Amino acid sequence: MASPAQAAAAAKIKKKPPIPFRALEKVRVRPQSLVKICLKRVAESFLSYDNLEAKLGKKQLEDVYAMLDLNISLPEAATRIRDENYWKRRTQSTHRNAQVEKHGMSWKQTFLELELQEALERLPVTFDYDSPDLEALRQQVNASRLHIFRLQIGQFPSHVDLSFLFDALPALCCFSITYGSRRLGMDYERAMFGMKVSDAQYLARNIRVSQTLVSLALPCNTIDDELVKVLMGGLAYAHMLTSLDLSHNKIGDRGARRLASLLDSEYCIESLDLSDNMIHANGCMHLGAHLAENVTCSTLNLRLNRCEDNGVSHLFQDLCVNKCLTSLNISSNDLTVRCLPYMNSMLAENSTLMELDLSANPLYQPEQPEGGNNDATSLLNATQLADGSDPLMVGAGDSMLFGDTSDEALAGLGANSHYIVFARCLMKSQALLRLDIRQCGFPPELAERITTTVKHRELRAKDIPVQAYENSKIVVEEQIDEENEEEEGSAAVDEGGEGDGAQGDAKSGEEKEDGSTAGEEKAAGETATAPAEN
Question: What is the percent of the chain with per-residue pLDDT over 70, rounded to a whole number?
């Protein structure tokens, strides 16, 4: 038998708790529920089921859509999947920079429109109408027909007839296309760019039969007057069109004359963009003549044309009676001082124009007067009131204009009167809220006064405190001055360091020169004493 001591030791060993080992603990694994297994099976074979919305609940359908494969064929997915979360995941996986705000706030519409745009941009130059690629494209168009509202084709290398597109899309309202290819590298060919006559004929037919198209953009297509004549075969029937963009083309006066007919009362064009074309004075005259009685067009862009003083002067005369246009861009049209009287008349009589862009026009041409004062000094002095105060500082807001006594300051200016009347009309116009007169040659102080007055008027129209805006400008200017001072200080320190180094080098050089001179004198003395000793 064991002794009492051995029994006590055995009892202590039995009472000692076991050492815990987490790795040895038993892990409990709960199997998936039967419902989840079934939903996963349904998601894997989703295309083999019909009418799932009637068979599953809302939460179960969401779980199925969350487990769906993102690579389901587009025709099947477009017709059978409505869940926005699924289309959001699929869009973000393939189009990371997609902006749903530009596509009706619908992720399904966003994905289908972007996919169709890319499919059209990938079409080859030479195309067979019986090819399987075109058949697949037709299936994609038919599957997404109810969700395509906007198409913006940045490049279209093929010249295929797009009738299958317009006939199958009953909701297409915005269409933009540029014929040609991008990023060709060394494979450049001139024939690969621009719209052909056959393309214009196809497009005219499609515009004529479309009942929903409200916005059409054809930029960078090398469209000339002859192509405009072909396109008018369809545009003449586009009574629903509200926005037309023909910028960056080769449209001349004849094309502008044909397009001006779209400003008649039977059409509803609200925005017309003809920037960067070849429109001269004659075309601008016709646009103005049709614009005089127009009651729908609110935006006209004639930037980068060749309208010059003659054409723009007639346009200003017609705008005196126009009551609808709110934005006009005539920058870079080679306008000079000769158009200022007509512009002054327009600014005085027109009460609807809110935005005016006159930039990059040589409006100000200084000449040396007989009195010896240049135009800049005379013009700046003329913009002050008779008591020497600045018109921008008179009153709290609405009185920031030229006073009646300013005629005394304007007396004797002669040739400069057009500029004075121009500045006065700009400042007195209560409708004008935005103005761009950059690169027009005006004196900086005068340009600053005019733009500041117009800016204050815009701020007051938006109920924004003018003083807060001016204080923010002062803060920004102070920050810029501080940064400039810091840069100048660091540059001065660097120059000082370089100067000290240069002085040290010069000093050491002088010491070396002194040493070499002393050595040469010593050597010469030794040489002179050596013969004497001999």
Answer: 77
Q: Mind listing the pLDDT tens digit for each residue in 515-533? A: 444 444 444 444 444 444 4
DSSP label of 354 = -
Q: What residues are paired with 356 via a beta bridge?
A: 328, 435
Task: Give every CB contact of residue 261 below 8 A, 6+ residues apart in sequence.
Answer: 232, 236, 290
Q: Are strands 243-245 and 215-217 parallel, antiparallel or unpaired?
A: parallel
Q: Are strands 174-179 and 215-217 parallel, antiparallel or unpaired?
A: parallel
Facing residues of 273 across strands? 245, 301
Cβ partners under 8 Å of residue 236, min gap 6: 261
State how far the alpha carbon of 58 is from the alpha carbons of 21, 54, 517, 525, in Å.
Answer: 45, 10, 103, 115
- Of 262, 126, 98, 245, which is closest to residue 176 (Cα–Cα)? 245
End-to-end CA separation in angstroms for the chain? 130
176 forms bridges with which residues in the sheet? 152, 217
Q: What is the C-alpha to C-alpha distance for residues 217 and 377, in angstroms, rounded to an integer?
A: 47
Helices (H), 145-271: 163-168, 197-209, 225-235, 253-260
Q: What is the pTM of this model?
A: 0.78
Most confident of 41-45, 312-316, 369-373, 478-482: 312-316
Tell me how far apart the alpha carbons of residues 526 and 156 are, in angstroms, rounded to a whole number: 94
Around Cβ 358, how many Cβ atoms within 10 Å? 25
| Nearest Cα to Cα of residue 123 among 143, 140, 111, 148 | 140
Is 352 in contact with 431 (CB distance < 8 Å)? yes
Residues whose CB falls within 8 Å of the CB of residue 532, separated by 6 or more in sequence, listed in order: none
Sequence-ordered list of residues with C-beta below 8 angstroms from that of 318, at least 6 positions apart, any chain: 288, 289, 291, 292
Tell me the sheet residues that pair with 63: none
Whether residue 476 is predicted with pLDDT greater than 90 in this model: the reply is no
Cβ neighbours for 215, distance < 8 A, ≥ 6 positions apart:
173, 174, 175, 176, 241, 242, 243
pLDDT confidence of 371, banded at 50, 70, 90? Answer: very low
C-beta separation of 180 from 192 below 8 A: yes
- Helix orientation angle between 281-292 and 253-260, rounded to the nearest 10 degrees: 10
| Cα–Cα distance measured from residue 477 to residue 439, given in angstroms and rounded to the nearest whole number | 22
Q: Per mean pLDDT, which range of 20-29, 184-193, 205-214, 252-261 is the poorest?
A: 20-29
Residues 357 and 386: beta-carbon distance below 8 Å: no
